[in-house]
Design goal:
Length: 118
């Protein structure tokens, strides 16, 4: 019985630590922004000769409470992001923007939408 309890305690500590580490490195808060520029384009070439185009967007984003944060979004793609598109960003305090998705204007929380459209 003592061995079983010991194994369960060790397993619980491991799972708790794994959960905390995952959220520390890959967790983030939702922020909302609107693409209003074509971004800054830069072209690079890999060692194998393959060319990459990166678009960098530096702009304000707002959380559901309307709190502002300056974010940098980098995208490797052939064309810039669509103008006037609303984006939901997952922002990690240590790593910056982890992911994004395009959403409808109606999906942006009211407090964030008021700040974005001003």
């Amino acid at each position: 019985m003592k061995k079983l309890i010991g194994v369960l305690v060790v397993l619980g500590i491991f799972l708790g630590g794994s959960f905390a580490a995952y959220h520390y490195f890959y967790g983030g808060e939702a922020y909302y922004t609107k693409i209003t520029t074509n971004g800054e384009m830069s072209a690079t070439q890999a060692d194998n000769g393959e060319k990459f185009t990166t678009y960098t967007y530096k702009q304000a984003a707002y959380n559901k409470d309307g709190e502002k944060k300056q974010v940098t979004l980098r995208e490797e793609r052939e064309h810039p992001l669509k103008m006037n598109a609303y984006l939901k960003l997952k922002v990690n305090p240590r790593k910056g923007v982890l992911s994004w998705e395009e959403i409808k204007a109606s999906e942006v929380p009211k407090n964030a939408a008021e700040k974005i459209d001003n």
